[in-house]
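Quick question: what would this complex look like in 3D?
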Amino acid sequence: QKEVEQNSGPLSVPEGAIASLNCTYSDRGSQSFFWYRQYSGKSPELIMFIYSNGDKEDGRFTAQLNKASQYVSLLIRDSQPSDSATYLCAVRGPGGNQGGKLIFGQGTELSVKP
Amino acid sequence: DGGITQSPKYLFRKEGQNVTLSCEQNLNHDAMYWYRQDPGQGLRLIYYSQIVNDFQKGDIAEGYSVSREKKESFPLTVTSAQKNPTAFYLCASRAEETQYFGPGTRLLVL
């Protein structure tokens, strides 16, 4: 079982719709959860992070964390063609001696159609 | 203008050659990381450094080496022992919990 799993997609949504991206992780002791956006040929850029169970909102983005189900998701409201990219889920495991190591999923490709 | 820079943007390696990828940051971050990304895959950790003059192997360190002589710099050498070096190489530095990435270097084999 992979440590962090995402559906590779592509996920296609119409402009203005809600895009829902999902991520599951295997280490129940994981502490912090990150969503990065990566445009084709570019490096990842941080969208948001979440540490506590529940929802965290930032503009059109909402991260949702459920530690009991080992599940984290990213919702993008009012999706725009400029949101078309690969979205990477990353998880920091437990323990203070891991140097802040992140485990990445393989990414979900999102396509927003005008 | 603060940030992380990587050079070169593209690098070509010949058989049996060692090549070095540069990573510099002026963010005053202690921790720095090197990742490799293959097409359609997530990032895999090669090496990381939490402080000057100290570094640890990541998940795929074989065929790579690093140094951390200055806080600002964390160069990665891809040695001839790395038999499949073609990939997108990403350097990152960390502030508190969050890692921030440089623009990347794409390494190709001639």
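Answer marked as accepted. Chain B has a mean pLDDT of 94.
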